[in-house]
Model the fold of this input.
Amino acid sequence: MSRYARTQVTARRSVPPGLRWALLAVLVMAATGAGAALAAAGPAGTTAEAGWTPLLVIEVVLTVLCMVGSTAFSYAEAGLVAMPKPLIRRLAEQGDDPRARAVEELIESGLDDAVALLAIMVTPLNLAVATFVGHLTVVLLGPAYYIHTAIGSLVVVLLLCEIVPKTYASHYPDRVALSTVRWVVPLVGSLPVRLVFSAVKAGSWPVRHILGFDDDLYRVRGFSEDELQSLLDIAEEHDVIDEAEAEMFDSIVSIGERTAREIMVPRVDIVIVDASVPVAEAAKIIAQSGKSRIAVHEGADDEIIGILYATDVLRCFHAGDTEKTVRDVAREPLLVPETKPVDDLFRELRQRRTHLALVIDEHGGVDGLVTMEDVLEEIVGDVRDEHDIDEHPDIRQLDDGAYLVSGTTPRHEIEELLNIDFGDDNGEFDTIAGLLFVRADGLPEAGYYVDHGPFRFQVVSMDGLRIVEVRIERLAPSPSGEESAH
Done:
């Protein structure tokens, strides 16, 4: 069953027995208190002291109305704050319930102001209840009963106007939001209420200014990154989400900390074709590489002028234009700086409706290439297609417990795998091969290793000057935790 379905099932459940008994107890307490007051007042027209006057009747009615109003506003406020917005939007799209559409319009037009208005209106109503009850007690029962009645009214107000409605609304926020929206919308949109809200904001401005609060005081604040991370940890501890879901959520939360340089395909690994090559020959290069998009250069290898799409090559074959050169069909590339955050990169790729961008370094040269697949892999992990099935994974654990990793494995993946920190290197390296190059006095060769903390990183194989594979093994405990290279 999907989460939406579970939420809808929850919304149809009956009121829990505990809430029923709590509400019944509050009603009994209120009725008992009213009966005691009337009994103390005596028959209509006579009381122990001042007499039962029409003014007192009006005061009792106003007390009850204030309690009802406070309960309703607390009920609606808690429901609107806790309501599941995705479910409301889904119900509105289905069009089966006009109330869902009304709630969605409230979300779009100003949910924060509506919640703030409801919260503000609860306070004066509770104060009015306390004032009326105190006055009625003195008039009907005498000053001697004031303390007892004040404590009793406080308990009733807390239960009836705060605890019970907010507890129910927190358990069934969708039901509460749908049931209250018809009177909440016209109420918060009425001129008198808006004037009161504006007056409260204006009156509180000096205090907010002195305390350093901004004008968004009445806005419902979102979660910070640290708060979201704490919520994810708690959810995982209580098995609300599994480990895979937790890792995905964690990747989404922290995706803005990564840069294009950290996830790009390095310049040396980019498949490149010369701009003067005929389309027919370029088709063979695409087929051999297994890539659907390759870079196009003219002159020096670093002068990349465009991107060749396999779909454009197919169109040329279909039209019989195989004699065209790659330059004729190449598309202009999207250029991004190497420091661009991954979340911004994702948005730009979507806005430009492209799946690939060239990463430019501080000197204006091409540092690498990044695709939409690289961005998505930061969230969901490795995405492998039919061309990846024969490739070795970047990280493999050997029988002896050591790891064999690709030289291009990102630094942050190694840090997470081994639970270590390579320290602040001012961006000297982004991959495990980069670590070995930075720590070496000269060019590393097969067999060269670096000891960092409790681990040894050793070059296993090379392709020319490139480090292809690195072995990582745990060292025996030693008194010195310093780094060494050999």
Notes: The chain has four domains: 3-189, 225-256, 258-380, 395-485.
